[in-house]
Amino acid sequence: MRKGCKINTNQSRWMDKFSLLVFSLVSYAASATQEIQFKIVDQIGNPIANAVVSASGEPTDDIANIPVMDQINSQFSPHVLVVQKYQSVRFPNSDDIRHHIYSFSQPKPFEIRLYKGEDSTPIRFDKSGVVVLGCNIHDQMLGYIYIAENEITAVTDQNGLARLRTQATEFTFWHANLSASNSERVTKSFAREHTLANEKTKSTINRVSELKTVTLALLEKNKTEVKRRKFSRKFSSREQ
User: Which residue has the higher pLDDT, 10 or 170?
Assistant: First the structure.
């Protein structure tokens, strides 16, 4: 009986240590991930919509999903579409008129000749970078497909706001008017913020970080006109 009790005691101690290890790992993982809030503004303080915020990490998007870049009222919708490398995109035309979509961008030059409705075949984007879209009939139409690779991403709303849940401390920021090539990205680093601890359970609780304001120096619109879209290239970057 004593021998059996000794075995049970050892098992109990081992289970206690194992439980503590699991708890520590879970707590560490929780504390390492935070929801980061960003507000993106231009050099005079105006909010920037359709900017892409990204960080290294495993994307949550399933590349088997086929997102849509539509054409509504002779505009691309959405204006900026983020996809993952190797993901395909559908290009339906919801207008009553025909469009002729094309891109000269290096990551994926292509064209879809005059069409309307759902007749277009999905196009696969197998290189990271920015693809600038135009219409051969309607010069005012301009859209962008941001092709991410091993990144988690968010697109800013009309108020320039975006959120990312990540462990990263380094982030990249893209907007079409950052450069004439439409492909330049800016990199910024932020210190990790501490998490709060629950005194009763000793567990770690995530909290939303304070709002981080990022200023991007945009070019004037006449320097990023539609005619320059054929010069779009793979991503380039600079640190600030």
Answer: 170
Task: State the greatest distance between any 2 C-alpha atoms of the chain, in Å, as a whole number.
Answer: 90
Q: Tokens in use for 5?
A: 């009790």
Task: For residue 90, give the nearest of 115, 127, 73 by alpha carbon.
Answer: 115
213-235 b/e (C-beta count within 10 Å ≥ 16 → b): ebbbebeeeeebeeeebeebeeb
pTM: 0.77
More confident residue, 173 or 198: 173
DSSP state of 47: B
| Whether the Cβ atoms of residue 72 and residue 95 lie closer than 8 Å to each other | yes
The secondary element (H helix, E strand) that includes residue 29 is: helix 2-32
Amino acid (one-letter) located at 137? I
Contact at 8 Å (CB) between 149 and 82?
A: no
Rounded to a whole number of angstroms, the distance between the first and last alpha carbons of the chain is: 70
Adjacent-strand bridge partners of 93 = 117
Identify the helix (H) or strand (E) that includes residue 9.
Answer: helix 2-32
Instruction: Render pLDDT for 73-86 as a digit per residue (tens, 0 to 9).
Output: 999 999 999 999 99
pLDDT per residue over 27-37, tens digit each? 444 456 789 99
Both structure tokens of 91: 């290009």
Instruction: Give the per-residue SS3 of 211-225.
Output: CEEEECCCCCHHHCC
